[in-house]
């Protein structure tokens, strides 16, 4: 099947993956990422470290221009805030395994995607790219990143690549983002910080996150409203939050509250 990763290419892919895992920094990681693209027959690679941030990222911009992505694509990315609008990027928030995007599908089915996506699709099709393979990378603190490979292998070829090399591509996404996250200057809450929350503090915080008022939290917990206030004040202090709403947001990012709402 066209797009299938042959044994020799698979060996090269795994060699690049092993080197990426041990990369000391971005300069060492990027050639391995490009080597993985070559091994699966992808013409272009793209990545984003945080799909919630539509702002200019000089590292991303330099990489994409080096890859040969045209100015118009970069304008759509930065000026039109593509990561917040386009279904392709939104899908990364709901998927956790590699998925295929058929760039010819809108033309075949008569669908009408957002204007930014229509412009981007027209540009990439003119570049000879017909399908994309995307690895969503779900990181700590609710951060969603992605790595994408685009090529002329078509949707069927891309699906064959995912079927044959999906685990390797998934690992690639995580290893590459690990390199980015190791950059100097990153500091956040640690596991030690979080372990200081008591079960009662966690219970009060989770009920607050579910929309209950202080009095209702007290009734559900079997304690007084004053005690609930004391526990929530402790949570705010321990998480370094500005207020209760900020504490709920931080705790949700850290996966401390589980699913909330529908």
How would you characterize the overall build of this protein?
This protein is an alpha+beta fold. The chain has two domains: 7-181, Beta-Lactamase, CATH 3.30.450.80; 191-253, Arc Repressor Mutant, subunit A. 58% of the residues lie in helices and 10% in strands. It is built from 14 helices and four strands. The protein has helices at 7-21, 26-40, 58-67, 71-79, 82-85, 87-92, 105-109, 115-126, 154-181, 191-195, 199-209, 214-221, 225-239, 244-253; strands spanning 44-48, 99-102, 131-138, 144-151. Strands 1-4-3-2 form a four-stranded antiparallel beta sheet. It is elongated, with a radius of gyration of 22 Å. The model has no long low-confidence stretch (mean pLDDT 88). Keywords: DNA-binding, Transcription, Transcription regulation. This is HTH luxR-type domain-containing protein. One of its GO terms (molecular function) is DNA binding. InterPro entries: Sig_transdc_resp-reg_C-effctor, TF_LuxR_autoind-bd_dom, TF_LuxR_autoind-bd_dom_sf, Tscrpt_reg_LuxR_C, WH-like_DNA-bd_sf. Residues 190-255 form the HTH luxR-type domain.
Note the topology.
Layout: H1 7-21, H2 26-40, E1 44-48, H3 58-67, H4 71-79, H5 82-85, H6 87-92, E2 99-102, H7 105-109, H8 115-126, E3 131-138, E4 144-151, H9 154-181, H10 191-195, H11 199-209, H12 214-221, H13 225-239, H14 244-253
Antiparallel strand pairs: 1-4, 2-3, 3-4
Helix pairs in contact: 1-2, 1-9, 2-9, 11-12, 11-13, 11-14, 12-13, 13-14
InterPro entries: Sig_transdc_resp-reg_C-effctor, TF_LuxR_autoind-bd_dom, TF_LuxR_autoind-bd_dom_sf, Tscrpt_reg_LuxR_C, WH-like_DNA-bd_sf
Keywords: DNA-binding, Transcription, Transcription regulation
GO molecular function, one term: DNA binding
């Amino acid at each position: 099947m066209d797009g299938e990763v042959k044994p020799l290419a698979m060996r090269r892919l795994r060699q690049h993956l092993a080197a990426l895992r041990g990369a000391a920094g971005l300069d060492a990681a990027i050639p391995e990422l490009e080597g993985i693209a070559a091994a699966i027959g992808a013409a272009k690679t793209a990545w984003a470290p945080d799909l919630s941030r539509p702002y200019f990222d000089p590292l991303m911009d330099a990489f994409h221009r080096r890859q040969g992505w045209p100015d118009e694509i970069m304008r759509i990315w930065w000026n039109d805030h593509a990561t917040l609008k386009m279904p392709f990027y939104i899908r990364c928030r709901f998927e956790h395994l590699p998925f295929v995007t058929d760039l010819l599908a809108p033309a075949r089915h008569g669908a009408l995607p957002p204007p930014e996506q229509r412009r981007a699709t027209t540009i990439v099709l003119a570049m000879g790219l017909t399908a994309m393979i995307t690895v969503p990378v779900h990181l700590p603190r609710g951060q969603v990143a992605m790595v994408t490979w685009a090529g002329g292998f078509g949707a069927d070829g891309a699906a064959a690549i995912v079927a044959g090399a999906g685990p390797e591509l998934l690992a690639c996404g995580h290893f590459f983002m690990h390199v980015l996250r190791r950059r100097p200057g990153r500091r956040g809450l640690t596991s030690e910080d979080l372990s200081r929350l008591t079960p009662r503090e966690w219970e009060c915080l989770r009920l607050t996150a579910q929309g209950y008022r202080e009095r209702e939290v007290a009734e559900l917990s079997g304690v007084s409203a004053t005690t609930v206030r004391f526990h929530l004040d402790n949570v705010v202090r321990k998480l370094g939050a500005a207020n209760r709403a900020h504490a709920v947001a931080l705790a949700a990012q850290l996966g401390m509250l589980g699913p909330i709402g529908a």
